[in-house]
Amino acid sequence: MRVFHFKSSLIALSTAALLSACVTSPKMMKEDGTEYDVAAQYEKFAKVDMNPDTSFLSASEKAVVNKLIQASEYLSEIYLRQRGADYPALREEIAQNGSKTQLAMFDLHYGPCDSLESDFAFYGDTQCAEGGGFYPTDMTRQEFEDWIAAHPSDEAAFTSGYTVIRRTEDGGLKAIPYHVEYAKFLEPAAQLLREAAELSENASLTKFLNLRAEAFLNDEYFESEMAWMDLNGDIEVAIGPYEVYDDGLFGYKTAYESFVTIKNPEESAALAKYKNYLRDMEANLPVEDRYKNFSRGFASPIAVTYQVHGGGDNENGVQTIAFNLPNDERVREAKGAKKVILNNVLGAKYDRILAPIGERVLVHDQALLTTKKYMSYNTLFHELSHSLGPGNITVNGEETSVSAQLKDLYSGVEEGKADVMGAYNILYMMERGELPSSEKEAFLATYFTGLFRSMRFGITEAHAKGAAFQYNYYMQTGAAEWLPEQRRYRVDFEVLEQSIADLTGEIVRLQGDGSYEATETYLKTYVKLDEPAKAALGELEDIPYDIRPVYPSEI
Ligand code: ZN
Questions:
Q1: CA 12 to the chain's CA centroid
Q2: Which tens digit of pLDDT belongs to each residue from 74-98?
Q3: What pLDDT, on the 0 to 100 scale, is given for residue 174?
Q4: CB–CB of 225/331 below 8 Å?
Q5: How far is the CA of 324 from the centre of ligand 1 (A)?
């Protein structure tokens, strides 16, 4: 979730004059009084040329992919307007008056706000509205809620994931469907999907693309989401409005994005076997039976893919390495959710970020153990573990859910749970002989290093919070020890293995009990950066935070 910092925007305002007078030095001051360096922030993202191998695609498949790449560009246009209704004009202005780096930063973050610095506005007096371009910038939460209270018949349209809210001429509010608001982009995008459907020789893809084209023009996504679950060829594409993270006001409005990827059939088949273990994994959780949850569907297709092109929300800032869609609960109940791993994005992050971090945080002989393979497995089992453990629960005789009970604490706990439970399940797969137990140390070294990759983002973000409580738990149990002279950690693999099981149990009970107070106390104890962590993170400054992939414009 992106956060609006009124104070930092005020500071941005006061430096605007300085900025326009002195274009060669686009430096600004942050809230804490330190300098904000836009060029240094841009360099935190390492440029990586992505040239996925597409040689095994047929000529018609390549033609389909190229149509999908073109359609993605239209979704990027929409997404820019979803980030800020006036952002296309602002981009023009920066192109005219700003520095080259500011323009590149704008394109990287889809707007003038730096997501690595609590949405610090790096251009002029711009502000980053909490509700993005989904709502009028002068509308408050209160006004929206009051409007619905006074006009109950508007509620469905106002809270829909597929409408924007605009002002009427007399100062009221109205909902406009996406297919109307963004018709200029959705119509040509739908046309391209139809052309791609026509070119495709894969019936499941043709069906999905035709249904999705229809959905672009009427905002009815259910049928095409069902068809998406059944895709079975070399081309794996997700294209449409999906995630709600950009709606910082209410979390109602979906953002357009696209993932144009090709599937590696052998790798996908090799990983598909793990979904058959979901029920066994649930049964194997190290908790009393009453905490185990067998009421979810365990269907869970897994696709290992190589991204060929992205668009919209997918391109913005920190890059996605895996996703789990659709979000529509009706589809999830009927068919489960598909886990898609973007293996080339993940591989680039391993090479540029995780492996170099390992060299700085682990003693030399353990740093040599990290592998790309286990970064990939950590990611897969993290995603699988989101489907395990308590979901709907009963607290004091009332039916509720973990997320409803834990509220704002939920996302940090859930991300940490998925990490540690993912690790627990990898160890379980080694026990079952489905992964080689000779690679246990490689896995544990990679997993421990991954915690630092997450904690760098500041321990307020959900994944970083989750990483911080795992790290502090392991420091407490002696699973890792800081060696001040080497300024590195040594992991005790045996203790870490036991601690992973113990922590998995503790988190599952915490979620299953559904006590906000107990969870708050737990997080207060374990979400912190101790002196060794600060020292270790301080050694990582020259390692990129993320990557800036550049994809071919056609294949
Ligand atoms: Zn997650």
A1: 28
A2: 999 999 999 999 999 999 999 999 9
A3: 98
A4: yes
A5: 9
Dihedral sign (CA 156, 3, 85, 166): positive
Average pLDDT over residues 358-383: 96
Cα 478 to ligand 1 centroid, rounded to whole Å: 26
Residue 270 has pLDDT above 90, yes or no: no
Q: Is 88 helix (H, G, I), strand (E, B) or coil?
A: helix
Looking at residue 82, what is its pLDDT?
Answer: 98
Give the helix, strand, coil percentages of the chain, each rounded to 5. Answer: 55, 15, 30
Cα-to-centroid distance, 451 and ligand 1 (Å): 13
Q: Which two tokens stand for residue 89?
A: 């004009």
27: pLDDT confidence band, cut at 50, 70 and 90?
Answer: low
Query: How many A from CA of 486 to the centre of ligand 1?
Result: 33
pLDDT digits (tens, 9 = 90+) for 177-235: 999 999 999 999 999 999 999 999 999 999 999 999 999 999 999 999 999 999 999 99
How do beta strands 256-263 and 302-312 pair? antiparallel
CA of 441 to the centre of ligand 1 (A): 23
Predicted local distance difference test score (pLDDT) of residue 92 = 97
Those residues whose C-beta lies under 8 Å from the C-beta of residue 104, and which sit 6 or more positions away, are 42
CB atoms within 10 A of CB 289: 8
Q: How far is the CA of 287 from the centre of ligand 1 (A)?
A: 21
Phi–psi pair at 120, nearest 5 degrees: -55, 130
**Mean pLDDT (the chain, rounded):** 91
Token pair 């060029």 in the structure block, residue: 39
* Residue of 189, 252, 247, 186 whose CA lies nearest to 219: 186
Q: Quick one: what percent of the chain has pLDDT higher than 90?
A: 80
d(CA 119, CA 112): 8
Q: H-type helices in 48-140, by residue range?
A: 59-83, 87-97, 100-109
pTM equals 0.88
- For residue 317, what is the DSSP state? S
The whole-angstrom separation of Cα 223 and Cα 208 is 9
